[in-house]
Specification:
Blueprint: H1 2-42, H2 44-51, H3 55-79, H4 85-109, H5 146-153, H6 158-172, H7 175-186, H8 192-218, H9 245-260, H10 279-299, H11 305-313, H12 316-347, H13 351-379, H14 384-402, E1 453-455, E2 460-461, E3 471-473, E4 480-482, E5 495-497, H15 504-526, H16 528-539, H17 545-561, H18 563-573, E6 576-581, E7 587-593, H19 595-624, H20 636-657, H21 659-670
Helix pairs in contact: 1-4, 1-7, 1-8, 1-9, 2-3, 3-6, 3-17, 3-18, 4-6, 4-7, 4-9, 7-17, 8-9, 8-13, 12-13, 12-17, 12-18, 12-19, 12-20, 12-21, 13-15, 14-15, 14-16, 14-19, 14-20, 16-20, 16-21, 19-20
């Protein structure tokens, strides 16, 4: 007996270590995949400026990740449970690393970034050639060289980023469904919520690191090391600034490849946690698995694929849950993808600062919410009905708080000739721009080049020439323009490079917005784990679990993840007040937006989408009110039947009410 006990104890330790090793490995995989995802989302503005493309095209590039995902998600989710799941996850991590590396390639294949400017960086042009000179000849950058024009228009280097993002989506496919199902299969049922909570915490730590990395890279000039940054006439707050977006992709590639290594050394199956000490159970499990392998070889691996699909499609609760997820994910993918741009345009922050603030204020409360939700689920043994109500009412509370965002706003930046007149009076937008005025009519100024300056009167101007400035002192970003005829002040009429700051009141509005966002993030994530556990454990049959998660992810990608950034980006483009100009004179990336209309689109459209998702959610609560959950009192003759039918559907109800969690899972997938 002593020998047997030692053998059982050794087996128990060995099994537990392998399960915990997988838990650690999958958590690291979540960190690396969400690190690269959040970094990609944060660099969308930099990619837009680097390649001078509209926001709608940037949205398509962002949605290409979902294209790669949906190519394999259903089949990986189904066949993955029948193959070696850890190895499939490891291969996926390697493929993600390859995709990240491909995304960084354009930087090494392209020439140096050139931003539009009226000021010469080279110093070969006289110091007054870009100022107000009557009957003078303006020397502008970029020049309208036909050969340069053709070269620029034909440049499709952004395709590398697109293809790399698709490959990254392909590699990410097996990590979520196979990793979660592996934990579900071999962990104790009461431990699963806590384990899932740790994994999802890794999916928040990754974005936090990714956002900090993105904040650092966005603050470093894209061609640093190959250009003299002292000669630059733009700062990170300028809408022409491009950060070192390529550098972070190289780091993400290395991280994904490193996290793949442990999965190639993990076993295909493990004994169920908590039962590994029982020799008889181990023996029976082994014999049962052998019988399953024989049956699998006899029947074929695809025999039950169509029956499973039919069962899922005939499950009304599951299908309604997918509907709610699609609606809410349409809202959240837009908010996540364009939040840095919103903070830049609404509150006048640089890309680096906007990304940093998102990481500091939003991700820690989400992480805490996941942990607390998992602990509550484990400690209080939350029932299906309780979890459904937790998800529903907390989501509703967070939705109501969301409307406070509409009051935390700032006015448009006062730019003479675009948002205000040259006298500083706000003008009606979209009725044609009066770029020229009496004060600069004879200055021979370019009217399309965006090179803003801030006057001493608090107004911004599209260029020093349009401000009527005649002289300048200093060099680079410290250049000061003087004798500006359009700047009416009692003292010296001067201007400096860059847009004027939005002021203290706008900074306070930003603080209120971030605090409200922190509270909303915590409330939203608090019920995430209970909702997800209901989806995995109770709404779907155990044998359909992995496929059900895959179908859910497939639908959200097809109907939300891919189209949402595209149509949302097109709507954002519609609020543009001034487009950048390419060398050939064609429009490039947008330089300034109507912040009021941008706010209505960014906040209003998600509010409408999320509000509509509560209709089917409340309908399910009403329909399930009359049903009996397992364990509730019921007549002896009907209890068994209701347990089998009602139990499944009532538990699914929780899934619907926690549709918000699934969207949160998609939130993490995008990140």
């Amino acid at each position: 007996m002593g020998e047997t006990e030692k053998r059982i104890e050794a087996h128990r330790i060995r099994c537990l270590s392998k399960l915990k090793m997988f838990l650690l490995a999958i958590t690291c995989a979540y960190v690396s995949k969400t690190l690269s995802g959040s970094y990609m989302n944060s660099m969308l503005t930099q990619v837009e400026r680097q390649f001078n493309i509209p926001t709608s095209l940037v949205g398509f590039i962002n949605g290409s990740f979902e294209i790669g995902n949906l190519l394999l998600i259903i089949f990986v989710s189904y066949f993955g449970t029948k193959l070696h799941r850890p190895i499939m996850i490891g291969v996926g991590c390697v493929v993600m690393g390859l995709g990240c590396f491909l995304q960084s390639l354009p930087h090494f294949l392209m020439n140096r970034y050139e931003y539009e400017s009226t000021v010469s960086v080279s110093g070969n042009v006289s110091s007054t050639s870009f100022l107000c000179t009557e009957n003078g000849t303006q020397v502008l950058r970029p020049t309208q060289d036909p050969s340069e024009c053709m070269k620029e228009v034909k440049s499709l280097m952004w395709v590398y980023v697109l293809v790399g993002n698709i490959i990254r989506g392909v590699g990410e496919t097996p990590i979520m469904p196979l990793g979660i199902s592996y934990i579900e299969d071999f962990a104790k049922s009461e431990n699963s919520p806590l384990y899932i909570g740790f994994i999802e915490t890794g999916a928040i730590i990754g974005p936090l690191i990714g956002l900090l990395l993105a904040s650092f890279c966005a603050n470093v000039y894209v061609d640093t090391g190959s250009v003299n940054t002292d000669e630059l006439t733009i700062t990170p707050t300028d809408t022409r600034w491009v950060g070192a977006w390529w550098f972070g992709f190289l780091i993400c590639a290395g991280a994904n490849v490193l996290t793949a290594i442990p999965f190639f050394f993990l076993p295909k199956t493990l004994p169920k946690e908590g039962l590994e000490h029982d020799v008889d159970i181990i023996k029976n499990n082994k014999e049962e698995k052998q019988r399953e392998e024989v049956k699998k070889q006899k029947d074929g691996i695809t025999k039950d694929f169509l029956p499973f699909m039919k069962s899922l499609s005939c499950n009304p609760i599951y299908m309604l849950f997918i509907l709610i997820s699609v609606i809410q994910f349409n809202a959240f993918v837009n908010m996540i993808s364009f939040m840095p741009k919103y903070l830049e345009q609404q509150y006048g922050k640089s890309s680096s600062d906007a990304i940093f603030l998102i990481g500091i204020y939003n991700l820690p409360p989400i992480c805490i919410g996941y942990i607390v939700g998992g602990l509550i689920m484990k400690k209080f043994k939350i029932t299906v009905k309780q979890a459904a109500h937790i998800g529903c009412w907390l989501s509703l509370l967070e939705y109501l708080l969301y409307f406070l965002s509409f009051f935390m706003t700032c006015d448009n930046s006062p730019v003479a000739g675009i948002t205000t007149s040259y006298e500083g009076i706000p003008k009606d937008l979209y009725v044609g721009s009066d770029i020229l005025a009496a004060c600069n009519m004879d200055c021979n100024c370019p009217t399309k080049t965006w090179d803003p300056v801030c006057g001493a009167n608090g107004l911004s101007y599209m260029s020093a020439c349009l401000a009527g400035c005649e002289t300048s002192v200093g060099a680079g970003i410290n250049m000061v323009f003087q004798n500006c005829s359009c700047i009416h002040t009692s003292g010296n009429s001067s201007a400096v490079l860059g847009l004027c700051d939005k002021g203290h009141d706008c900074s306070m509005m930003l603080q209120y917005f971030l605090i409200m966002s922190t509270i909303s993030s915590f409330i939203y994530s608090l019920a995430a784990i209970p909702g997800y556990m209901v989806l995995l454990s109770r709404c779907i049959k155990s044998e359909e679990k992995s496929l059900g998660v895959g179908v859910h992810a497939f639908c959200t990608r097809v109907f939300a993840g891919i189209p949402a950034p595209i149509y949302f980006g097109a709507l954002v483009d519609s609020t543009c007040l001034h487009w950048g100009t390419l060398k050939c004179g064609k429009p490039g990336a947008c330089r300034i937006y109507d912040s009021t209309n941008f706010r209505y689109i960014y906040l209003g459209l998600p509010a409408a989408l999320r509000g509509s998702s509560f209709i089917p959610a409340f309908l399910i609560l009403i329909l399930l009110r009359k049903r009996h959950l397992p364990g509730e009192n019921a007549s002896p003759g009907t209890e068994l039947a209701e347990t089998k039918v009602t139990g499944k559907e009532n538990e699914c109800k929780d899934v619907h009410q926690n549709s918000k969690f699934s969207n949160d899972n998609e939130f993490k997938t995008k990140l």
